[in-house]
Amino acid sequence: MSDLLERLRGRGWRLTAQRRVVAEVLDGDHVHYTADEVHAKAAELLPEISRATVYNTLGELVSLGEIMEVSTDGRAKRYDPNAHHAHQHLVCSRCGTIRDVHPVGDLLAGLPAEERFGFQVAAVEVTYRGVCPGCSTA
Amino acid sequence: MSDLLERLRGRGWRLTAQRRVVAEVLDGDHVHYTADEVHAKAAELLPEISRATVYNTLGELVSLGEIMEVSTDGRAKRYDPNAHHAHQHLVCSRCGTIRDVHPVGDLLAGLPAEERFGFQVAAVEVTYRGVCPGCSTA
DNA sequence: TCCTACATTAGACGTTGTCTAAGTCAAGAT
DNA sequence: ATCTTGACTTAGACAACGTCTAATGTAGGA
User: Fold this and answer.
1) Which residues of A69-86 are buried (b: 16+ CB within 10 A; e: fewer)?
2) What is the pLDDT of residue B52?
3) Which residue, A28, A54, B65, B74, could crosslink A71 as a Cys pair with Cβ 3.0–4.6 Å?
4) Which residue of B has its CA nearest to A77?
5) Across the interface, which of B101, B124, B127 has its CB nearest the CB of A128?
6) Minimal CA–CA distance to B95: which of B62, B137, B45?
7) Helices (H), strands (E): how many in chain B?
8) Is A45's pLDDT higher than 90?
9) Domain ranges of chain A
10) Cα B56 from Cα B73, distance rounded (Å)
């Protein structure tokens, strides 16, 4: 976390209270908040923080590769601080919970050359869908 | 296409002019329109069709499994009439063009049991990203 | 042909995200 | 320590996408 702030300072970022608070909210594993959730949690620590600043800061962190955008439901985008380790997502079809997961093998290898239509394929995003333990017993 | 209308009639659907026009717009391969694009094209055939009807009809077709919802960019959802043949999507990072593609192998097999966290995993969605031929030469 | 439950419509409303203009402040220079 | 300046933050308007409601229209069976 302070690693993150160090890196950002190294890139010429001004370290404002607002940015520190957003970074703090995004600290942790299996964190997948929407922008408005980040804003709500940030406002508990710094009540006067504005929505625009949260959106701006999230956008900047995405551009810098420090966090990932995830859209698993076509609704609000979610932000995943675990951007430095390649991973995919497992989503509960009932409650929407998201887990980070690590499939084995080369995901790109599954797409044969004749199915690439001349594209230079660079990345793959995989979303596994199922029912989580909590929802299947309920 | 008329197959589709037959199936829907069999399920108790009223065949209105509006629903026929939406079905007609969604006919074809590699079709991935947004709701508003569907509305615009439908309005060329039936000028008085309303936005609400297009949204309603698309939602019903999704519930019936006749078309698929696709969200590749976190913006507007797109609708894919090719719902009866399992497939994934290849998206151009520059222009947003979407191709239907067919990866080989069992996509679910890539997720080991210890990475399933007790979920009953039922489906996988894969989005390949790259640059299409048109955009890479330009 | 008539009836009625289902379908459609216009437009208000909700959510999510972006933009602008004015004020504020972090951090280097002095 | 204070000054200066350009980057940062703010409130609120605006935009894109989608949903909902109440009034009206109509498909298809009786």
Assistant:
1) ebbbeeeebbbbbbbeee
2) 98
3) B74
4) B74
5) B124
6) B137
7) 5, 6
8) yes
9) 2-80, 88-132
10) 22
Cα A116 to Cα A8, B33, B90, B129, distances in angstroms = 37, 21, 8, 10
Return the number of other C-beta atoms located less than 10 Å from residue A99's C-beta. 19
Q: Is B132 known to sit in a ligand binding site?
A: yes
Q: What is the CA radius of gyration of chain B?
A: 17
Q: Is A123 close to B121, i.e. CB distance below 8 A?
A: no
Arithmetic mean of pLDDT, A40-54: 97
CA-CA-CA-CA torsion sign (A116, A119, A122, A127): negative
Per CATH, the architecture of A88-132 is what? 2-Layer Sandwich (3.30)
Residue A6 has pLDDT above 90, yes or no: no
CATH classification (class only), B88-137: alpha beta
